[in-house]
Design goal:
Blueprint lengths: L1 E5 L2 E9 L3 E6 L1 H7 L7 E4 L4 H4 L5 E2 L3 E4 L8 E5 L5 E7 L3 H6 L4 E7 L15 H7 L1 H21 L4 E4 L4 H12 L6 E5 L5 H14 L3 E5 L9 H4 L8 H18 L4 E4 L8 H5 L3 E3 L6 E4 L7 H10 L25 H7 L4 H17 L3 H5 L10 H11 L3 H4 L13 E7 L6 E7 L5 H4 L10 E3 L5 E4 L2 E4 L3 E6 L2 H19 L6 H5 L5 E4 L2 E4 L15 H10 L3
Parallel strand pairs: 4-7, 10-11, 10-13, 11-12, 13-15
Antiparallel strand pairs: 1-2, 2-3, 4-6, 5-9, 7-8, 8-9, 14-15, 16-17, 17-21, 18-19, 19-20, 20-21, 22-23
Length: 554
């Protein structure tokens, strides 16, 4: 949701609704500017209903004298009196004709109703230059502090220094601050292969304009699309692409160019997220060994960044003028649906991604809503998304993510992607199985993975301690250290294979002293109540060995 500010007042918000798109939600100051006689989206209320509306009551149908006949439920409307006095804004609960004809029921759910003083400053010239001048003293104070921080940090760390530049506004501000500090540091840019063409061009132009050395590291040509066949679309909670396309090239660039370590000035701000708020201003980067990160703009808000860029008269990434708030990979699962709407039809790269999603959905028997609502962005969608999807489509998310076609049959194989992830704290491993699995069959055996086993009521996944196994064939393991994560993943794969394709050798049952595992009809079964999480069952298993011989890659 974005606020629209005019004359120093918030006149409206721009809100993106799933299944509908952008909505202009007017506030009182915006309604005053539209005027008391709008041509569309108006409801004329009876004078007797005005006191009730201004006490935050909804406008009932008997209080409606007239209404725009084109109004449909859900529309944002303006409530006015017959003489053109603005009373409130709200959302229609009936069509326009229904409001006029009905003798009961809520016609309009009111939003903004308290009278305000109309501030008209349209005669006063406004510009970003004026905004910069009005805030110059505050900006210069922050600039002086940041440049001092840069110089002091370099003195305290006996390392070569660089600027990590992504092509976004925050890293641009950090780069400009190093120049203001009297430095000309090399610039590191990691081209993930998923960048906008304009972003790559912008990075080169900035370095050329300021005479800075550009260290550009590119992800392998097929790092992303080549791995899609194994991992499927990346998700907010399954960001395997961070490792293949960002982490790997970054570590490679630092190891190659700065084998003894490097100090990297990064455009990180604490207001971006809770995780970044908790991070110190200078830190040892856990996922890029040898890199010390430092943020000159840790305490800055987005407005500070923009005013500073405007003050410097510095060209910025053109995608900010096209509606994006953040610049990154064009298909990043962390993006909102609204951002994807801005990208579609403007970036040629989006067509490639849409084609892949269409083919992926068709191959797996996924409904059209899976792609339309971008449900590929989660393995386990949050409650807010589940509720919104249900409201818009009338269907549960589990219905829209259930694969009705199996893309591949036969023995299970596994593809593993591991490493420290820029998106999570600690070590994580993501794996993709060659086909969907039966969670009901796998769940009982998960007691060997941890004391607490949780099954999704809708059958999407099962979790045991640090491991989550998904019905569609993904596994996520997390741990504080690499060794533990590797062990968790190995055990998770053994459990899946044990449940899915037991060959009946009985080795695991023989190793189970509590006798939780037993053989039945030539297959291993488990008595969940008898499993004590001793892990003695893990070990040589022909089924696991077959799967590893076929495709185990770790």
């Amino acid at each position: 949701m974005d606020e629209v500010v005019v004359d120093g007042e918030v006149i409206a918000t721009m809100r993106y609704d799933m299944g509908i798109g952008w909505k202009f939600v007017s506030r009182m100051q915006g309604t005053y500017r539209i005027g008391g006689r709008p041509e569309r989206g108006y409801v004329i209320c009876d004078d007797g209903a005005v006191p009730f509306v201004q006490e935050s009551k909804n406008l009932m149908a008997p209080g409606v004298n007239d209404a725009d006949p084109d109004i449909v439920p859900g529309d944002e409307i303006i409530i006015v009196t017959a003489d053109g006095r603005v009373i409130a804004t709200g959302m229609a609960r009936m069509t326009g004709p229904e409001m006029v004809a009905a003798d009961k029921g809520v016609a309009v759910k009111t939003r903004w109703y308290k009278p305000e003083e109309y501030r008209d400053m349209s005669s006063k010239p406004n510009s970003w230059d004026a905004a910069v001048e009005a805030n110059r003293a505050a900006l210069e104070k922050r600039i002086n502090e940041a440049t001092g921080f840069i110089r002091n940090t370099m003195e305290r760390n006996n390392l070569p220094a660089i600027v990590s530049f992504s092509g976004g506004k925050d890293s641009l501000a950090s780069l400009l601050l190093t120049i203001d500090a009297g430095l000309k540091l090399p610039v590191l840019f990691v081209d993930t292969g998923l960048e906008f063409d304009e972003t790559v061009q912008h990075v080169h132009e900035v370095c050329e304009r300021h005479g800075l050395q550009l260290i550009e590291e590119k992800a392998p040509t097929d790092a992303f699309f080549g791995n899609l066949v194994y991992f499927g679309p990346p998700a907010k909670d399954f960001r395997w692409c961070c490792k293949t396309n960002k982490l790997g090239p970054t570590v490679g660039a630092i190891t190659k160019n700065f084998p003894d370590g490097v100090l990297s000035f990064i455009g990180q701000r604490k207001y971006e997220s809770e995780a970044r708020r908790a991070k110190p201003r200078v830190w040892n980067n856990p996922w890029t060994p040898g890199q010390v990160g430092a943020s000159p703009i840790q305490e800055w808000c987005a407005m500070h960044v923009w005013l500073y860029i405007f003050m410097r008269k510095e060209p910025f990434n053109v995608w900010y003028t096209r509606g994006l708030d953040r610049i990154g990979c064009f298909l990043c699962p962390a993006s909102d649906l609204a951002e994807f709407d801005h990208i579609a039809g403007v970036s040629d790269r989006w067509d490639q991604w849409e084609k892949y999603l269409e083919e992926y959905a068709e191959d797996r028997g996924l409904p059209e809503e899976w792609r339309r609502f971008a449900l590929w962005r989660w393995k386990n969608a949050p409650k807010s998304i589940r509720e919104e999807v249900q409201k818009v489509s009338g269907k549960e998310v589990s219905e829209l993510t259930r694969q009705t076609k199996t893309p591949e049959r036969g023995p299970l194989t596994i593809k593993v992607q591991e490493g420290y992830s820029p998106c999570v704290i600690g070590y994580s491993i993501e794996a993709a199985l060659s086909r969907p699995i039966d969670i009901k069959k796998v769940k009982p055996f998960c007691h060997a993975l941890g004391w607490t086993v949780t099954e999704d009521p809708e059958g999407e996944y099962v979790s045991a301690d640090y491991i989550t196994i998904y019905r569609e064939g993904s596994i996520i393991c997390k741990a504080n250290v690499e060794r533990d994560a590797r062990t968790h993943m190995d055990e998770a794969f053994q459990v899946v294979v044990r449940a899915e394709q037991c060959v009946g050798c009985g080795l695991c049952a023989a190793r189970c002293e509590p006798k939780a595992l037993y053989m039945k009809d030539g297959k291993v079964e488990i008595n969940e109540d008898e499993c004590i999480f001793c892990k003695d069952c893990f070990g040589p298993c022909p089924s696991v060995n077959f799967a590893r011989d076929e495709g185990y890659d770790q």
